[in-house]
Amino acid sequence: MGKNLEHQFSMLVREIRKEYVGNGPKEISTRFVENWAISEMKGNLTNVEKFMINSEQGKQTVHEARTKLVKEIYKRQEVVDKFETLMGARVLRLFSDINIDEDIAMTVFVFDKPIDQKGK
């Protein structure tokens, strides 16, 4: 059941990214560690963003826009509610970053109680 819940969590991350960013990552994997859900996403950038990152200024712009946008998405109560309902735990905080050169993003969700035992 644990792997199934990680898969469900990944699918929820993808669904939300598609809804609010316009496209979801090509690959996503999530691991639960104590009260953290760590999602790694590959293949995040749009064709326009890939064009923009050909310059240093473009890289900086895409990085700032992506990290700010993701943090704003997860401030929305309707988004937080979906994760809290799935996990049966409250989201306390979120950390997110993207490596533009490798097109890999990481988001760490911090919950109010351990989630890695769920379903065991």
Keywords:
single chain; 120 residues; alpha+beta; Threonyl-tRNA Synthetase, Chain A, domain 2; 4-stranded antiparallel β-sheet; 4 helices; elongated; MpsC; DUF2294 domain-containing protein
Written account of the structure:
The chain contains four helices and four strands; from the N terminus they run H-E-E-H-H-H-E-E. With 120 residues, it is α+β, with helices and mostly antiparallel strands. The protein has a single domain, classed as Threonyl-tRNA Synthetase, Chain A, domain 2 (2-Layer Sandwich), CATH 3.30.980. The protein has a four-stranded antiparallel sheet with strand order 1-2-4-3, with helices on one face. A hairpin with a 2-residue loop joins strand 1 and strand 2 (36-42). The longest helix is centred in the first third of the chain and has 20 residues, at 2-21. InterPro entries: MpsC (IPR018745). This is DUF2294 domain-containing protein. Pfam families: MpsC. Residues 3-113 form the Na+-translocating membrane potential-generating system MpsC domain.
Strands, helices and their partners?
Blueprint: H1 2-21, E1 27-33, E2 36-42, H2 47-52, H3 56-73, H4 77-87, E3 91-99, E4 104-111
Antiparallel strand pairs: 1-2, 2-4, 3-4
Helix pairs in contact: 1-4
